[in-house]
Amino acid sequence: DVQLSDRVQSIKPSPTLAVTNRAAELRAAGKDIIGLGAGEPDFDTPQHIKDAAIEAINNGQTKYTAVDGTPGLKKAIINKFNRDNGLAYEANQILVSSGGKQSFFNLALALLNQGDEVIIPAPYWVSYPDMVIVAEGTPVIIETSADSRFKITAEQLEAAITPKTKLVVLNSPSNPSGMAYSLEELQALGEVLKRHPHVMIASDDMYEHILWTEEKFCNILNATPELYDRTFVLNGVSKAYSMTGWRIGYAAGPAKVIGAMKKIQSQSTSNPCSVSQAAAEAALNGSQQCIADMLVSFKERHDFVVDKLNALPGVNCQPGDGTFYAFADFSEAIASFEGAETDVEFAEILLEQAGVALVPGSAFGTPGCMRLSFATSKEILADALSRLEKALS
Ligand code: PLP
């Protein structure tokens, strides 16, 4: 019998992918399943982006590129940071990777030693803790609740920092909560971080463009520019341009660490797909109207879903600021539901009996909640919510 590494045995498969797979299995077995577990927009990739990829193929851009990304794409990323975020980077501060997931993975491997602590506010994107564990770091989770709109306070951050803290992860707007930090809230966190110069910061801005607050998008560097030399900004084209399958993400930050991340990438995957890089360049340089169009749909569905969720007995869903997720507190509903003790059991029953796939909050470090992805049509959402209503009454 093969003895697997301690490393692989210390992590679990992505729970969101697991829910999606389970839904697909049941569907293949002939069951009528509505999958609201997936973390990807339902729209097609815009045509001008696809055209750029086809052109790249026909032009022979089908070979290895520079490990850290083509000069053209890196220039587009530098321009994007300038245009959208007021941030200035040089080419040696940018690393393009095969999705935002690889960007964070590279960062964890380049930065962490055994026992280094990484502060992760819950609810968190499912992959952060496991990627930290693969890199032999120690996740330190800060818990939040609906009362603080699932955001951490400066006091909580201060209390979590120790001499072993290496990195703090911020993700705003957040997957799964949909909440975004205001400039003021980020400034308060920034004040704490200024007092702890040994702590680095990862700002995961993946949902930057899926935001409908009055205040425009801001990240920790907009709030506290003094943190520039120890902040990594992670972003990508997956969510904004409906390009999840193309696998392009990017990181910006201090050249020394970006160089170390590049070294890791050079010995693992090398360059991200050449054709996808051409497509991403077109996405970043082209018209941004496609983002605005998708945002209108997401906001409409958000309003619809949040209303319907709040009408369910024992369910409380705060309106979000962005993303395509609703994160609702189901704890009362689960407590009064026969046959389920936990959110995980409840999700299983919903899937088997109501044919609706939601991701339990436990997966994100916040038990009692459920994440519903509204990256699907209004009709399907209406059907799913009436199934939930029936299941709960
Ligand atoms: N960061 C967050 C918060 C996400 O939700 C995701 C995707 O689900 C990613 C990063 C990674 O995106 P990808 O690897 O698909 O580019």
UniProtKB/TrEMBL annotation:
<keyword id="KW-0032">Aminotransferase</keyword>
<dbReference type="InterPro" id="IPR015421">
    <property type="entry name" value="PyrdxlP-dep_Trfase_major"/>
</dbReference>
<keyword id="KW-0663">Pyridoxal phosphate</keyword>
<feature type="domain" description="Aminotransferase class I/classII large">
    <location>
        <begin position="31"/>
        <end position="388"/>
    </location>
</feature>
<dbReference type="InterPro" id="IPR050596">
    <property type="entry name" value="AspAT/PAT-like"/>
</dbReference>
<dbReference type="InterPro" id="IPR015422">
    <property type="entry name" value="PyrdxlP-dep_Trfase_small"/>
</dbReference>
<protein>
    <recommendedName>
        <fullName>Aminotransferase</fullName>
        <ecNumber>2.6.1.-</ecNumber>
    </recommendedName>
</protein>
<keyword id="KW-0808">Transferase</keyword>
<dbReference type="InterPro" id="IPR004839">
    <property type="entry name" value="Aminotransferase_I/II_large"/>
</dbReference>
<dbReference type="GO" id="GO:0030170">
    <property type="term" value="F:pyridoxal phosphate binding"/>
</dbReference>
<dbReference type="InterPro" id="IPR004838">
    <property type="entry name" value="NHTrfase_class1_PyrdxlP-BS"/>
</dbReference>
<dbReference type="GO" id="GO:0006520">
    <property type="term" value="P:amino acid metabolic process"/>
</dbReference>
<dbReference type="Pfam" id="PF00155">
    <property type="entry name" value="Aminotran_1_2"/>
</dbReference>
<dbReference type="InterPro" id="IPR015424">
    <property type="entry name" value="PyrdxlP-dep_Trfase"/>
</dbReference>
<comment type="similarity">
    <text>Belongs to the class-I pyridoxal-phosphate-dependent aminotransferase family.</text>
</comment>
<dbReference type="GO" id="GO:0008483">
    <property type="term" value="F:transaminase activity"/>
</dbReference>
